[in-house]
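Format notes (please read before filing issues)

Several people have asked whether sequences and structure tokens are stored in separate files. They are not. Every record keeps both together, in the order shown below: the sequence lines, then the token lines. Line labels are part of the format and must not be stripped during preprocessing.
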Amino acid sequence: MAKVFRLHEGQDGTGWFISSQISKNQLRTIKTEGKDVATSIPSPFARIDLVKSAFRWVADNGINGTTAQHKLVSDALDVAQLFFIYPKHKDKVKIVSWNPEDRFEHLANDSNSKHSTFAETLSVFWSQDCNVYNFSKVKRLYF
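Then the structure lines:
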């Protein structure tokens, strides 16, 4: 049987349950031995949270290292550098602009029911995580 990864104390079994925000102390209990990045955060925006936490962790524990947190920070800085040097490499790399409001509406009105279900689900997470990630200020995402 697969191991159930859960930081919520006292919660047994599976399924949905009432939870509270995970504390810094609970986050410190995640052991990765520097090899893997935790991926059990149930949100499409989990990577944002992982990178945000990694920057804090590296700031608190030192910039030199080879942990999973150091890799996440390095990856984020590589993406930032790619955006910075993009004009020099635009024939090799394509950056796509994505307007969340327009795309949610377009997907919701798509005749393909899978797209409308995806748009509805993504909108729920977008609204739910709005304050945490300042999504109310986001006019464009770039991929």
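For reference, the curators noted about this record: The chain is about 50% helix and 5% strand. Helices lie at 24-28, 46-61, 68-89, 100-108, 113-128, 130-133.
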